Amino acid sequence: IEAHFAGTANTLSGIHALVTAGPTHEPIDPVRYIANRSSGKQGYAIASALSSLGAATTLISGPTTLAPPRGVKFVAVETAHEMLAACEKSLPADVAVCAAAVADWRVDHAANQKIKKVAGNLPALKLVENPDILQSLSIRTTARPRLVVGFAAETEKVLEHAQAKRLKKGCDWIVANDVSPATGVMGGDENTVHLISAAATETWPKLAKSEVATRLAQKIAAHFKGANT
Ligand code: C5P
């Protein structure tokens, strides 16, 4: 994709944006799964905001109850493996925002039939690690998105942990959010975040998730504009 930067307005026209959102579901058997809690709201709002600024936007989402934002290319997935494959398939992208709450583990061999409940007989689940989608996009040697943005949900030492996460994952920016229960972020409509890059840390006030998304999209537009003037 050839980037095109129009005029003086902060626009994302000519930019391809990739967004992951929602949880992943990792099957135990045909009816049971392992998942993280995630409404998908923040990721969907980001896809919508990027699209509103003119980015060709691909939203790769695990199962949620939300309707796909208008104008966005929507790819529905279930598992972390499917999400990673869908991300790779939608490259090249200029920017990737990984907002999905990917399950860290999956069951090594999911059962083909529903596991029967037998009193006193507990199934042993052998878990194996899932791929880290944010990290694998960040460390690509070919077709690495020019800007990779991750999220860090923390309950304590938010800035410190988020900075460490940025370095560990190899991404450019981290949106750190305080998800300690008192904040009501999980499943709620508001978010209190810090935007962390190598150069700076910004603390944003408590905002609607849609407003966090708009600001992030504006930051991304300003970044690409700055990088090309
Ligand atoms: O390591 P942790 O899950 O706290 O990192 C959160 C960030 O990493 C989020 O941006 C999330 O979307 C991303 N992630 C991922 N694939 C995983 C685990 C996390 O893309 N398997």
State mean pLDDT (0 to 100 scale). 93
Give the overall shape, derived from the CA principal axes.
globular
Oligomer: single chain
Uncertain stretches of 5 or more adjacent residues:
none
Describe the structure.
There is one protein chain. Helices cover about 25% and strands about 25% of the residues. It is built from five helices and 14 strands. The protein has an eight-stranded mixed sheet with strand order 5-4-1-6-9-10-12-13, sandwiched between helices. The two termini are about 20 Å apart. The site of cytidine-5'-monophosphate (C5P) has 14 residues, from helix 3 and strand 9.
In short:
With 229 residues, the chain is of the alpha/beta class.
Sequence-ordered SSE layout with sheet pairings:
Layout lengths: L15 E6 L4 E4 L2 E3 L6 H12 L3 E6 L11 E4 L3 H10 L5 E4 L6 E3 L19 E3 L3 H6 L8 E8 L3 H12 L3 E6 L11 E2 L1 E4 L4 E3 L3 E2 H19 L2
Parallel strand pairs: 1-4, 1-6, 4-5, 6-9, 9-10
Antiparallel strand pairs: 2-3, 7-8, 10-12, 11-14, 12-13
Helix pairs in contact: 1-5
The protein binds cytidine-5'-monophosphate (C5P).
Considering the chains and any ligands shown, give keywords for the structure.
single chain, 229 residues, alpha/beta, eight-stranded mixed sheet, two-stranded antiparallel sheet, 25% strand, binds cytidine-5'-monophosphate
